[in-house]
Design a protein that fits this description.
By secondary structure, this protein is of the alpha+beta class. The chain has three domains: about 150 residues, no CATH class; about 70 residues, SH3 type barrels (Roll), CATH 2.30.30; about 90 residues, Cysteine proteinases (Cathepsin B, Chain A). About 20% of the residues lie in helices and about 30% in strands. The strands form five sheets. The protein has a six-stranded antiparallel sheet with strand order 14-19-15-16-17-18, sandwiched between helices. It has a five-stranded antiparallel sheet with strand order 6-5-4-1-7, with no helix packed on it. Helix 2 crosses helix 3 and helix 2 crosses helix 7. It is elongated and about 75 Å long. The protein starts with 8 loop residues before the first helix and ends with a strand.
């Protein structure tokens, strides 16, 4: 599946972050009929869920706790659901006597064959916010992860200010600035995010999930407070606004993240052709921003130009030397990547600089 995901600048640049029109996620109540096609998970966190052969039947099949289910039908207080795997299990769950079905955010179709959801009882923060806290998982939202990583590296206080513990156990409050298409800041919006996250084999699937060649993070690492949950919480908040994880997977631009968490319009510079005045000016701006300590992302071109640099991808700029730019890849933010200025001009299309008050 794609791990990249930058939408064309003409579509995303300097627009309101997903327009902030997403419906707030809420738990299902027993009198709520759930729309067909909705992904749900049983409220019975530690027990299997029974899918009956038909309404009022005594026989059926059992699925493990946390199994993602899709609602496929409804009859007189009963939901018919099916598992997401290739070998689908189907059955009925009573709205009256069965477990509460909690709607979850939509995920990319390619993930549904192994998708699960788990409630992760971790802490948003386990120490100082660091760029190494976050990594991109099996979702094409490099622009989002890179934007958050850039803020974690250069303005960690903004990450801390954005996430607070919620009033109910297992919830968090996330604060965003609402920026209109005219650039006007319409003030703060708060979302309540619960601690149910997409998982696979007891590992995080998306933010903090890691890629195939990078060890993925087990849920125990979060519940033992060895790793913070803020990356997964913020990713889920953006997914809530966008209308699901599947929408994040379609691509975007780090401007959304900078807008939402700084309240200011970011600065953007195109690199133009290699060796051009435009490219030289953009690199000069990059160096000035790095000396100021600004959060910076760099977006690559739509074709591979330099070995080891992914196309259609977003990186974080963290430093520079006399002849190289130092980057971090959201696939694995632990390891710096040094790129010559010549290769930087060949492979990269633009840079985005957050404006932090």
């Amino acid at each position: 599946m794609p791990f990249h995901g930058i939408a064309p600048r003409s579509h995303y640049a300097y627009t309101t972050p997903y327009a902030f029109t997403g419906t707030k996620h809420r738990d299902a109540e027993r009198d709520d009929r759930i729309t067909r096609g909705t992904t749900v998970v049983s409220s019975r966190e530690n027990r299997p869920t029974m899918l009956l052969q038909r309404p009022d039947a005594r026989a059926g099949v059992s699925v493990r706790a946390g199994t993602a289910l899709k609602v496929v039908d409804y009859q007189r207080g009963w939901h018919k659901v099916e598992t997401m795997g290739e070998e689908k299990l189907r059955g009925w769950i009573s709205m009256d006597s069965g477990p509460i079905l909690r709607p979850q955010l939509a995920t990319p179709g390619i993930d549904k064959k192994y998708l699960e959801f788990d409630r992760v009882d971790g802490r948003a923060f386990t120490g100082p916010v660091r760029i190494e806290d976050i990594s991109q998982g099996y979702l094409g939202d490099c622009y989002l992860v890179a934007g958050l990583a850039a803020l974690a590296h250069s303005a960690p206080g903004l990450i801390r200010d954005a996430v607070r513990n919620g009033k109910r156990d297992g919830t968090y409050e996330v604060s965003f600035d609402r920026i209109g298409e005219n650039g006007r800041n319409y003030g703060e919006r708060r979302l309540v995010i619960d601690n149910w996250f997409p998982t696979k084999n007891d590992h995080m699937l998306y933010a903090n999930g890691g890629r195939k060649e990078v060890a993925r993070n087990h849920l125990d690492e979060f519940e033992d407070y060895d790793r913070p949950l803020w990356p997964s919480i913020l990713e889920k908040a953006f997914a809530t606004i966008a209308g699901g994880y599947a929408e994040l997977d379609k691509g975007g631009y780090p401007d959304h993240v900078f807008y939402a968490l700084t309240g200011n319009k970011p600065l953007g510079f195109d690199l133009g052709r290699k060796g051009s005045e435009e490219s030289k000016e953009a690199i000069d701006e990059l160096k000035r921003a790095l000396r100021r300590g600004d959060p910076i992302t760099a977006e690559t071109k739509d074709r591979d130009k330099v070995k080891g640099i992914y196309s259609n991808h977003t990186y974080v700029a963290v430093g520079y030397t006399k002849d190289k730019v130092i980057l971090r890849n959201p696939h694995d933010t632990r390891t710096p990547l040094a790129v010559s200025y010549e290769d930087f001009q060949r492979a990269f299309e633009s840079i985005s600089i957050a404006v932090v008050d």
